[in-house]
Design goal:
Helices cover about 75% and strands about 0% of the residues. By secondary structure, the chain is mostly helical. Helix 3 crosses helix 4, helix 3 crosses helix 5 and helix 4 crosses helix 5.
């Protein structure tokens, strides 16, 4: 990962010198993408939690916490590292889970 950051910084320096691509602060764009995995997981879950809470879709907090944690962890284990994608997919999966659970409760 360190080699990737060094290569990106070197490329950005060349681009800044030539200004061919119009980006002067290129290396600053990638600094936030190197979050430690526990922090990435925590931030993704927090974004999903805040959204669900704000929209009134959170439901039972304990169930939501377990579901979001399992969902985000599974995606991280598969290699996903984009925070917003992790949180958006977790939200979508949770909403589907709640809808299925609600329809099962109505059938019972």
């Amino acid at each position: 990962m360190t080699k990737l950051v060094a290569a990106t910084t070197a490329l950005c320096a060349k681009v800044s010198e030539t200004r061919a691509f119009g980006t002067e602060h290129c290396s600053a764009r990638f600094a936030f993408m190197n979050e430690p995995l526990p922090l990435l997981m925590e931030n993704s879950i927090q974004i999903a939690w805040d959204y669900l809470e704000a929209t009134g879709e959170l439901g039972d907090g304990h169930v939501a916490a377990l579901f979001l944690m399992d969902s985000v962890e599974a995606m991280i284990r598969r290699g996903e590292r984009r925070k917003l994608l992790l949180s958006n997919l977790a939200i979508d999966a949770y909403l589907k889970f709640r809808a299925e659970r609600k329809s099962l409760a109505l059938v019972s």
